[in-house]
Amino acid sequence: MREQNKRSMGQIEVIPAASDQERIIANLIELYAHDFSEFQELEIGEDGRFGYKDLPLYWSEPGRHPFLIRMDDRPAGFVLVKQGSPISGDRSVWDVAEFFVVRGCRRRGIGNVAAQAVWRRFPGRWEVRVMESNRPALQFWVSAISEFVGEAIRGVRLERGGVHWEVFSFTSGGGPPDSKRIAV
């Protein structure tokens, strides 16, 4: 099922990524890491790539779920979800491990729609952590989560390893029936 997103002029899908789509996410991770290097020191490898060593685990470990975000049948981003919080240590919490929307697709509501589709897919408690220095991401997550839960949300400020984080906790009651594709 697909619907026209009123804010974006495109059709958005959040698709569980198959193992043969790992390369697409790996390519998108390079763009993500490039953007993220503005906020955190990331080392680029001798091959000119940032890489993401844990990416293969999303197809081999239970509790990890990779998704492609597509707009008009083209890659527009990705979401990596895992069970277990690196902040609280709670193994039952769902965690947005990584989230990225390609720059040309931002500010159209695509990220908001994709985040909410994933939250509906995995009912239960969630944690979303954002580096405080990443102001655009912080604004995005406050807006997306507040809209999802139906009220203004406030995060908890934490420091880990010299990095300041804002951590948002909320509960998803679920949503549409489980299907191969989450079309929104």
- Topology as a string of helices (H) and strands (E): EHEEEHEHEEE
In the CATH hierarchy, the architecture is 3-Layer(aba) Sandwich
CATH class equals: Alpha Beta
What is the total tally of β strands?
8
Mean pLDDT, to the nearest integer, reads 82
Q: What is the tally of helical segments?
A: 3
- What fraction strand? 25-35%
Explain how this protein is built.
This protein has 184 residues and is of the alpha+beta class. It has one domain (12-183): Aminopeptidase, CATH 3.40.630.30. 23% of the residues lie in helices and 30% in strands. It has 3 helices and 8 strands, in the order βαβββαβαβββ. The chain has helices at residues 22-36, 110-121, 135-149, and strands at 12-16, 64-71, 74-83, 94-101, 124-131, 156-160, 163-172, 182-183. Strands 6-7-5-4-3-2-1-8 form an 8-stranded mixed sheet, with helices on both faces.
Q: Which secondary structure elements does this structure contain, and how are they paired or packed?
A:
Blueprint: E1 12-16, H1 22-36, E2 64-71, E3 74-83, E4 94-101, H2 110-121, E5 124-131, H3 135-149, E6 156-160, E7 163-172, E8 182-183
Parallel strand pairs: 4-5
Antiparallel strand pairs: 1-2, 1-8, 2-3, 3-4, 5-7, 6-7
